[in-house]
Amino acid sequence: MKTFLVGFLIGIVLLPAGFYWYLRSGNAPVATSAPPMPLEHFLVKTAIHATIDRHEIPIQLTNVNQDSLVAGAQIYQQDCSVCHGLPGQPPTAIAKGMYPRPPQFFRANAKKMDDAASEVYWKIKNGIRLTGMPGFYASLNDGQIRNLSALLENAVSLPPAASAALKNAPAKASEAAPPASKHTRSPHKRT
Ligand code: HEC
Questions:
Q1: The domain 66-175: what is its CATH number?
Q2: With a 6 A CB cut-off, is 131 part of the ligand 1 pocket?
């Protein structure tokens, strides 16, 4: 029993000390091109799923129609395409350099989104820490986030009008810059 306790105490001290040494060693992955840290994937995914399960508010995407999908597509091309890509276009320079990589929702062999609408809604609204996925709670309203959720849930079977709305998009951040003008555009705030 005594040996067990001594071993247990040493373990309690050694484990954090070892982890600290690992972080200080200069070998822990920090660059976006580096492989994941030990347990990184497990820790992050477990935390995300537990948090979403606990806090997501079940939402139903009712009234999804061509207009809501077109509206979602217009926001998507402005706020999301730079990371998540557009139909028929290669991933942007930004997407290629991120870790984790942003999923390319409209790539040719994309499958139907398997996340429930509530989960997609939660992620768009709150973002995902340490991944680069921003939360849009401060810039998009409930209806806009619903339209985006509907767009992604239906990404593989969009009506032509919504696909067309996506294609009008400048995918590169540089091209998306607003024209030089004294008036700053703020399309999302328009009511
Ligand atoms: C700056 C880059 C960036 C922008 C802009 C961005 N995202 Fe993301 N997004 C990410 C990354 C990176 C991930 C992957 C996170 C992960 O692996 O956990 C992600 C993940 C997601 C997911 C979860 C996908 C899944 O399979 O679980 C959804 C949904 C999503 N983004 C929607 C959006 C929408 C909608 C917008 C625009 C309103 C947007 N994102 C804008 C980088 C971005």
A1: 1.10.760.10
A2: yes
Mutation pick for ligand 1 pocket among 76, 84, 112, 148 (CB with most ligand atoms within 8 Å): 84
Ligand 1 pocket, 135 CB below 6 A?
no
Give exposure, 34-67, as e/b (b: 16+ Cβ within 10 Å).
eeeeeeeeeebeeebeeebeeebeebebeebeee
| Closest Cα to atom 39 of ligand 1 | 80
* pLDDT tens by residue, 105-134: 999 888 888 888 999 999 999 999 989 999
For the entire predicted model, the pTM comes to 0.84
> Which residues are registered as beta bridge partners of 133?
128
